[in-house]
Amino acid sequence: MDFGGPLYCCGFPGRKVYILLFTCSIIKAVHIEMVESLSVQDFLLCFRRFVARKGLPVVIYSGKAKTFVKWQTKLLEMYGRECPTWKFIAPRAPWWRYWWEKLVGSVKSALKNSVARASLTRQELETVLHEIEARINFHPLTYVGTDVNAPAP
């Protein structure tokens, strides 16, 4: 789990929005949520949306930012025994988070290429983020060959 941003929307001058990126370490799928602020309340709503769509994760990896530490305690209160194990990576150890930073880079690159410097409304930006998520997640889970007579993987 990692944050990206801030991003700005037209219609809300000077107001920032952020991207909360959930990355599956097994199949490298991403889930992108747009968040109004870095507050605990906004995070909890975002996390509930994620759980409603994808299910409760078993383990969460993140940096050890103060906001993530606050969120960990709130999730413990909210989910009790079913709460995911939260593992913080070592500070200043970018190699620990390489697998999700690569996907964060893919999201940023796609956002830069599709939006560039255009001014989007909140709904347009959210739509673009969902399209980016779908495009990044559109990769085969196994090798796809060109020989029609090849055995099934």
Automatic annotation (TrEMBL):
Any GO MF annotation of the entry: nucleic acid binding
| Gene3D superfamilies named in the record | Ribonuclease H-like superfamily/Ribonuclease H (3.30.420.10)
UniProt cross-references to SUPFAM superfamilies, sorted A to Z: Ribonuclease H-like
Q: What is this protein called?
A: Integrase catalytic domain-containing protein
